[in-house]
């Protein structure tokens, strides 16, 4: 379905760009998202794409900032981690708690959209995409109760609905199963290794050694689409 450059986000030939709302996604995922968004609007929710397609270079900038200490590493509760005394492996695994390895991000497929509710954000509000926003009493808690009830009928599911030893829970991260469940099979260890070898990622030598474990823990062990999610 995806070629090697597409599945690692090094080209964007598999996505289309929209301006209102502004997002980029695979055409099938985009069409389904716009239907989901229309359904949400009928219930007073402005389902807004906060992050959608991200290519390899964008993910590499996130990686480099976290690896180099210019961006914060967070624990599962969204609290900043103290980096003192961390080994390189600690840094790598703690980056991977919240951020995918470049080449291995689901956002590269065009099937994934992180969402917020534009109708409840105060002017100038910057979404954090942290657990407190989604928990009971959080700004986006009503959005998430609505998503609970509606996303599966539109082909979306939450691959990071709960912690399974890899990525931390990201309830705001929606995945369009008809595209992503095929893309995940295209991202083989060989494909990911070639993309990493071709990169100038900080920590590359150690990442290459850890690659099979990263693929197992952080790419393959998602929470799969439930039975009522058609794909
Ligand atoms: Zn996401």
UniProtKB/TrEMBL annotation:
Stored Pfam families: VanY
Gene Ontology biological process: proteolysis
Limits of the D-alanyl-D-alanine carboxypeptidase-like core domain: 26-178
Any one GO molecular function term: peptidase activity
Gene3D superfamilies found in the cross-reference section: 3.30.1380.10
The name this protein goes by in its record: M15 family metallopeptidase
Organism expressing this protein natively: Scleromatobacter humisilvae
